[in-house]
Amino acid sequence: MKKPKMKLGEVDFILFATILMLVTVGVVMVYSASSYFAAFRYEDPEYFLWRQLFAACVGMVAMFFTLNTDYHKLKKYTRILIIFTFIALCLVFVFPPVNGAQRWIKLGPLSFQPSELTKYVVVLYVAKSIEAKGERIKLFIKGVIPHLAFAGFFAGMVILEKNLSIATVIMLVTVAMLFIGGTKFSYIAEMGLGLLGLVGLAIWFEPYRMKRITGFLDPWSDSQVTGYQLVQSLLALGSGGLTGVGIGQSRQKCFYIPEPHNDFIFSVIGEELGFIGCMFIVVLFIIFLWRGIMAASKAKDVYGALLATGITAVVILQSLINIAVVTGSMPVTGVPLPFISYGGTSLSINMMFVGILLNITRQNNS
């Protein structure tokens, strides 16, 4: 007998509108932040604009597809996605490094960054596995360790690509999902301490990471080398004042902030749109967090609740890290601002997976 098609309710309009606003602001600010750099590097001030617009269109199609597809069907494809992700993470080492990191698969004019998919594939697996384990998730050996081992394996592969920040996001999101899934708080505390120790070791054994720590502690003592990015970012934020110098009028984007359309785009937003513009972005992410928590709390099954938790945690953790770096609240690390920083892989994959989050809200409202 054919299974009846699941009836979907109304999409969470607040969440949907928030995502669209973030993407729209991102496309506009990528153009504003990159035009000067692109004009000199590629003799085309719109070079990055058209690429970001293309990624946004691809992401929009992907988001509408996942928005209208029952998220439970993802369980069937999780294993295939894990295999694909593993192969993609291995393939990056075939290509030459960029700025000392091997994170991209390049096919002609197109490039793909597997770590952007990895964090969400880990979410899919952990959500499926926790639901299957049921009450056993409360056991440390049989419940917690397998998930940490799985996430740790993929996080380790990402670290080999010289991407500690995304690896840390993967582990933090896994811990958050374990907690929501029913793991004891004492285990969570132990995992937190262990994760902190591992991050410390990863920093200690890489000289460039240690330099970032010293640059963070006193960026002005070496403002031309280790503290350069942070100093230029703070100058941009400070010169923006309350209302900013006006969109397109940033001075720091003129070869002071390296590639200002990427990880430090928030500082250009602060310079051009001021404190008000920065707070607008922060409020949008707060609304995203609120609606994500609502989606998880109202989910009709454990799998949906964990998926909503994981997807929301990925976006919010990355936004927190990015804004903290730009404002000098933590050491410089390469984490893009979700939906806003330039990057086709990041934007399209983020939009595809927030489509899953929107699908969960539709089923909650059915």
UniProtKB/TrEMBL annotation:
It comes from the Bacteria. Pathway: Cell wall biogenesis; peptidoglycan biosynthesis. PANTHER family: CELL CYCLE PROTEIN, PEPTIDOGLYCAN GLYCOSYLTRANSFERASE FTSW-RELATED. This is Probable peptidoglycan glycosyltransferase FtsW. InterPro entries: FtsW, FtsW/RodA, SpoVE. It catalyses: [GlcNAc-(1->4)-Mur2Ac(oyl-L-Ala-gamma-D-Glu-L-Lys-D-Ala-D-Ala)](n)-di-trans,octa-cis-undecaprenyl diphosphate + beta-D-GlcNAc-(1->4)-Mur2Ac(oyl-L-Ala-gamma-D-Glu-L-Lys-D-Ala-D-Ala)-di-trans,octa-cis-undecaprenyl diphosphate = [GlcNAc-(1->4)-Mur2Ac(oyl-L-Ala-gamma-D-Glu-L-Lys-D-Ala-D-Ala)](n+1)-di-trans,octa-cis-undecaprenyl diphosphate + di-trans,octa-cis-undecaprenyl diphosphate + H(+). Its EC number is 2.4.99.28. It holds the Pfam family FTSW_RODA_SPOVE. Keywords: Cell cycle, Cell division, Cell membrane, Cell shape, Cell wall biogenesis/degradation, Glycosyltransferase, Membrane, Peptidoglycan synthesis, Transferase, Transmembrane, Transmembrane helix. It is a multi-pass membrane protein. The chain crosses the membrane at residues 12-37, 49-68, 80-98, 139-158, 164-180, 187-205, 273-290, 302-327, 339-360. One of its GO terms (biological process) is cell division.
